[in-house]
Amino acid sequence: MNGPCVSIVVPVYNVGKYLGRCVDSLLKTSGIEKTEIILVDDGSTDDSGRICDSYAERYEFIECFHKENGGLSDARNYGLGKASGRYVFFLDSDDEVDPDGLGSVIDILDKADCDMLLWDGKVIDETGNDIPSTDANLIHNGLPVDGTELSGTDVMVRLIKDHNKIANTAWLRACRRDFLTANDLLFEKGLIHEDALWTPKALINAQKVIYVPEKVYCYRTRNNSIARPGPSEEEARAKALVHIMNSLYGYYTEHVSDKAIRKILLSNWAEIYMWEMAQYGFDRYECSKDIPRGKIFSSCRTFKTWMKGFVLLILGTGNFCRMYRSHIEGKG
C-alpha cells in the first residue's frame, strides 16, 4: 500500500511539560514508521513549538506545522487537511498511547477495510502511572471482541443497552480518511466538548465498524484540571452542551431512518440531556430558553425517564433542575 497506513494528528498548545512523553510513547510503538505523525502547533506561547520542530528534524515520518491559535477543533481539522494516511487518529498532546496496544492497532489498520476502528482507554497520572478506573467513557463494553463488523448505529445501540453510555471521545478510534471527508465530518470550530457532537455523527455515517479490545489510549489526569471552573467557564459549558444536544436531536431525526434505532438513540439523548441540565445547572443561564422540553418529553422511552420528562415539561427547567439536584444531594 502506498503512503502511511494511518496519520496520527496531534494538536499542540502550551503542553511543553507533557509533549515529549506523548511523542515518545508513539516512538516506542512497533510499526510506528508505517504512520505519519502530524504535530499541529496551534500558536503555542511556551516551548511546545520548539519541541515539535526538534522531533520533526529527527524523524522523517514526523511533520510539524505552525499556525495561529484557533482551538482544538480547528487544529484537528487543520491536521486532517494535511494528512495523507488511509486512516486518521486524533491524539491529544498531553496524553499518551500504550505502545503495545497501538502496535496491535497499526497491524490491523495496515490490512483493514472499515470506516472506523474502535479501542479502549485507561487513565494515567501526571507521571504516567496507571490509575484504576471504571469510566464508561473509556470502554466499549457490549461490543463483540472477535472482530465482527457492525454498523455505527448498531454500535451505539449495543453500548446504550449495555451501560447507557456512548464513548464519545474522538481519540478512542481511527477513521478512514476518505470516509471523514466524504461525510464532511469536521470538528465544529470554537466549540468545547466538540467530541460529543462529532463522534455520534461519525458513528451514524459509519457502515463498517470494528472493535479491538485493546487499551490503546492513556488519558492523563492533570493536577490543575481538578480546579472548579469559574462562572464564565460554567456558562460556556452549559451553552455548548445545549447547542450540542439540540444539534444531535436534529441529526438523529434527519439521518437515522430506522424508527426503532432512532427511538433508542433519542431516548438516550433525552436522558443524558436531563442529567446534564441538572448536573451543570443549565437553569442558571440564558441558554436555558433554548432547551426543547417538548422534544425531550416526547423522546422518553422508559417509565423512569418519562416521569422526569413529564416533570420538566410541566414544571419548567428551573423547577426540574432544583428538584433533580435535591434528589441527588439527598441520595448522597
Q: What features would you describe in this structure?
A:
The chain is of the alpha/beta class and 332 residues long. It folds into two domains: 6-225, Spore Coat Polysaccharide Biosynthesis Protein SpsA, Chain A (Alpha-Beta Complex), CATH 3.90.550.10; 231-331, no CATH class. It is 47% helix and 16% strand. The chain contains eleven helices and nine strands. It has helices spanning 16-27, 48-58, 72-82, 99-109, 152-163, 177-182, 195-205, 231-255, 259-279, 293-299, 303-331, and strands at residues 6-12, 35-42, 62-67, 87-90, 96-97, 116-124, 130-131, 173-176, 209-220. Strands 1, 2, 3, 4, 5, 6, 7, 8 and 9 form a nine-stranded mixed β-sheet that branches. Helix 5 (152-163) packs across helix 7 (195-205) and helix 8 runs antiparallel to helix 9 (259-279). The radius of gyration is 20 Å and the shape is globular. The mean pLDDT is 94.
Approximate strand percentage:
15-25%
C-alpha geometry: globular
* Sheet/helix structural class: alpha/beta
Q: CATH class of the largest domain, anyone?
A: Alpha Beta
| SSE string, helices as H and strands as E | EHEHEHEEHEEHEHHEHHHH
Quick overview:
The chain has 332 residues and is α/β, with parallel strands linked by helices. Helix content is 47%, strand content 16%. The protein has 2 domains: 6-225, Spore Coat Polysaccharide Biosynthesis Protein SpsA, Chain A; 231-331, no CATH class.
Give the topology, please.
Blueprint: E1 6-12, H1 16-27, E2 35-42, H2 48-58, E3 62-67, H3 72-82, E4 87-90, E5 96-97, H4 99-109, E6 116-124, E7 130-131, H5 152-163, E8 173-176, H6 177-182, H7 195-205, E9 209-220, H8 231-255, H9 259-279, H10 293-299, H11 303-331
Parallel strand pairs: 1-2, 1-4, 2-3, 6-9
Antiparallel strand pairs: 4-8, 5-9, 6-7, 6-8
Helix pairs in contact: 1-2, 5-7, 5-9, 7-8, 8-9, 9-10, 9-11, 10-11
